[in-house]
Amino acid sequence: MSFPLITDPAFYAAAIPAVLLLGISKSGFGAGFGSLAVPILALAVPVPQAAAMLMLPLLLMDILGLHAFRRDFDWPLLRFLLPWGLLGTLCGTLLFRVLDSHLVAGITGVFTLAFLAQRLLFPPRAGSGAWPKWLGALLSTTSGFTSFVAHAGGPAVNAYVIPMRLPPVVFTGTMAVFFFAMNIAKWVPYGWLGLLDLRNMATSLVLLPIAPLGVFAGIRIARRIQPVLFYRLLLLGMLLTGSKLVWDGFLA
Known about the structure:
Layout: H1 9-26, H2 37-41, H3 47-53, H4 55-68, H5 75-95, H6 101-121, H7 133-150, H8 154-161, H9 168-184, H10 187-192, H11 198-207, H12 211-222, H13 227-251
Helix pairs in contact: 1-4, 1-12, 3-11, 4-9, 4-12, 5-7, 5-9, 6-13, 7-8
């Protein structure tokens, strides 16, 4: 029996950069860029299939990220974020078959650009503090939902956590734990929805060796980068992600 791999070179021309970007985002450096992975891969395959094919690389990336930043979590923050994020995963599971993934991507992009506009037009003042808890709950739930639908959970939770101005390694470690939990929670629902078929998993296995390359490169940079530059690059990544998601959702 032949292994049901995708052999089209055009697919791998999209898949390899997508996995590398996702790996770099898992290190914290370039975290805003990670949500571009599914839109890039969706240039070659449908969005649900793209999301499924990234599951094995994501698992390896999450494990590597957790190991690298295992002492750098903000546990009180995680205790708040995780239940709401998992609620979003549940919502994604229940609504997956009735929602248009492109529409979800577009809405996520609009929100991302709105957050950036708010940061530009009304920059935070020293001592202004974080967003209120109710908004954090909403953004964390949104993150879990968009992560489930299109692995695009970064912009929403970033919008809540960025104003806290955590040290880069603490930001990275906290996000590593959060998205490890979100991604582990996807496996059973993805299987139930029929996304983890043999072809998707075989292709995911082929992409697996690429996963550590982006993670290791990003980790080296994240531990050396200045916080100001770190957050500027994070916002740049969110700008590119938001623009791409809006294009895919409403203009393509």
